[in-house]
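[job 0412] stage=complex_fold ligand=glutathione status=START
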Amino acid sequence: MAARRIKKKPAKKPARKPVKKAAKPIELYYWPTPNGWKISIALEEMKLPYVMKPVNIGKGEQFEPAFLRISPNNRMPAIVDPDGPGGRPISIFESGAILQYLGRKSGKFYPADDRGRAQVEEWLFWQVGGLGPMAGQAFHFLTYSNEDLTYAKKRYSDEVNRLFGVMDKRLATRKYLAGAYSIADMACWGWVIAAMNFQPLNDFPHLKAWQERMGARPAVKKGYELGAELRKPMTEEQKKILFGQRAR
Ligand SMILES: N[C@@H](CCC(=O)N[C@@H](CS)C(=O)NCC(=O)O)C(=O)O
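[job 0412] stage=complex_fold status=DONE, emitting structure tokens
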């Protein structure tokens, strides 16, 4: 009997392991200031991979055409996420919009339910429309202005004092501004740290406790330290670049 030829099954190709694409890091356009810290802190808290791209605002790098395409307001922070919605890159400027985006992307520190989200947004917008600009102006007239303008110094430092009072009341009954720790706290912390230089926290015990509670978080420490070595006292040359800007 003729030996039956056993058909050899074609050798199976070894099963390919699905190749996991390493997430490309988010590019953070940054300089170590209270507005920059909001985003470095958030990225650290959310454990999102990122790479820092320094924008030396004292040298005028915020006016470079490549940066203006990302941030038409010539201000940092800004981000480029290579893995944005639909897997396509996205660029975002304005710290509040960036925080909301990162909160949605990571699903952290920005509640999904409407009530929780509305509370976070109240305090986030309170920061971007109030605490940040007012503390920024106070800082300007108290520290940077070459003219000694008593009225301007008082107007803005009074407003910071009022805003600190609002925060202090809020924090008397909750650990964080919106109850649970959120992007709103991340937005405010750097401005409190900066404004403490001219408005001490002695009269605001709950705010002081919050500032310390946040400051003890490793991610906050790391975000705050990002690029600290770049920060230098402002020179007259830098003031000419930063102040007195008009439409270009
Ligand atoms: N509303 C903006 C403000 C950002 C902002 O003022 N950034 C400052 C540094 S803290 C800046 O980039 N300044 C550059 C300039 O004044 O030309 C935000 O929240 O992102």
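Residues 33, 35, 57, 62, 74-77, 94-95, 128, 242 surround glutathione (CB under 6 Å).
[job 0412] exit 0
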